[in-house]
Design brief:
By secondary structure, the chain is α+β, with helices and mostly antiparallel strands. The protein has one domain. The chain contains 4 helices and 10 strands; from the N terminus they run ββαβαββαββαβββ. The strands form 2 sheets. An 8-stranded mixed β-sheet has the order 1-5-8-9-3-2-4-10. It has a two-stranded antiparallel ribbon with strand order 6-7. Strand 6 and strand 7 form a beta hairpin. It is globular and about 50 Å long. The chain starts with a strand and ends in a 7-residue tail after the last strand.
Length: 192
């Protein structure tokens, strides 16, 4: 858990929505799908506009797999103040999430399951539930929730035989407070 500071995030969406956001007419809404592994939030790829564009193109080609209809893939850039961040690349944050899981697991309830496995994970229903449960615990204790959640997501195929690197690994952000998004911008994708 730390205050990471400012990062650039990129969100793949439809051009109509992206342009409306740039004009200040609309806002991005938090995603609350039970497969969104970082819990409820507005999702961004950190520092990777090309990855956001690939996702938007994938969503257009696979409309049944996504709630959001994308006809014209678009990338929306954002300057994000992560604020107090549950940074799952740090040991303190990992310990907090592990403790939350222990409490979550001890409760008498139906436990969601993650689907798939690394390096090609599927829906992360358990991860979604545990991250949201951690925020519920903070609320019950009268502590402020995290403003954002950040994690490295290993995904894809090996770059070469026996590699420790996968071709779709990325850092993903879930912004929990819309006020953490300082500004939106249009990235110049043709210059990347």
């Amino acid at each position: 858990m730390n205050s990471v500071g400012w990062v650039l995030g990129y969100h793949g969406c439809d051009a109509v929505l992206g342009e409306a956001i740039l004009r200040g007419e609309k806002s991005l809404l938090p995603s609350d799908n039970d497969y969104d592994w970082l819990g409820t939030g507005i999702y961004f790829w950190e520092g990777d506009p090309k990855r956001a564009l690939k996702w938007a193109r994938f969503a257009k080609s696979n409309p049944k797999r996504h709630k959001t209809k994308i006809e014209h893939p678009f990338v929306l850039g954002a300057i994000i103040n992560l604020g107090t961040c549950l940074d799952l690349t740090e040991s303190d944050s990992l310990e907090k999430l592990k403790r939350a899981y222990t409490i979550f697991e001890s409760q008498d309830r139906v436990k969601p399951k993650n689907e798939g496995s690394l390096p090609n994970p599927g829906r992360r229903k358990l991860d979604f539930a545990v991250v949201n449960f951690l925020h519920d615990l903070l609320d019950l204790a009268g502590e402020p929730p995290f403003d954002s959640v950040r994690a490295l997501f290993p995904e894809g195929d090996e770059l070469y035989p026996d590699a420790g690197f996968l071709d779709r690994t990325h850092v993903q952000l879930a912004v929990r407070k819309e006020s953490s998004i300082v500004s939106y911008f249009r990235p110049k994708l043709d210059r990347l």
